[in-house]
Amino acid sequence: MIVCNGHFTKKELNSFTKLNKPRRVIDIIACDGASDFLRKHKVLPDVIIGDLDSVKPATLKYFSAKKVPAKKVYDQNKNDLEKALLFSLGKKYKLIHIIGLSGKRLDHTLNNISVLKKYHRKADMRFYENGFTGRIISKKLVRKCRVGDIVSLIPLPKTTGITTSGLKYPLKNGSLEFGERSGALNETVSEVVNVTLKKGCLIILNKSDN
Hints:
The chain is built from five helices and 14 strands. It is an alpha/beta fold and 210 residues long. It has two domains: 2-130, Thiamin pyrophosphokinase, catalytic domain (Rossmann fold, 3-Layer(aba) Sandwich), CATH 3.40.50.10240; 136-207, Sandwich (Jelly Rolls). The strands form two sheets. The chain has a ten-stranded mixed beta sheet, sandwiched between helices. The longest helix has 14 residues, at 106-119. 33% of the residues are buried.
């Protein structure tokens, strides 16, 4: 799990960690200033990654005493999420969870989405925000859900040959284009949703509480 320095809650963090157990179910990679949140809630990351310009010195000292490595990466062409993803891919992780993706500034949020698009074919990457799960796909997705859940399809930037099943407003070999036509606020009518596409990429957002 990659923890970005954006908006998320302890409840979201608890969804992926067993805070009172000697072993967690997954590894935790903290992006720079996200370490401050983890320290506050007594969550021990496996590594801290970034240019380390936003994490508090006291936090670095605290985690250093607990043998948590801090990897300072000098590369102004990559943000902290991209550095964390490259680290994860270097470890050959196949499933990567991301929380705090929406940064505290709009440019950070949009740049993080751009980074995910760049690497989404390298692993199964899932991000979580306000009760929704998001993924970027370029081929197909089969998703179990509850009837009545909201599902949004956002093209990046243009997607063609989209066919869906299990949605109230289905597409059959349809097209979506950013700034022209989007597939936001659709609704599930089945417990399984299928989405396939021929060209381009889609962000798929759906409720993640099931």
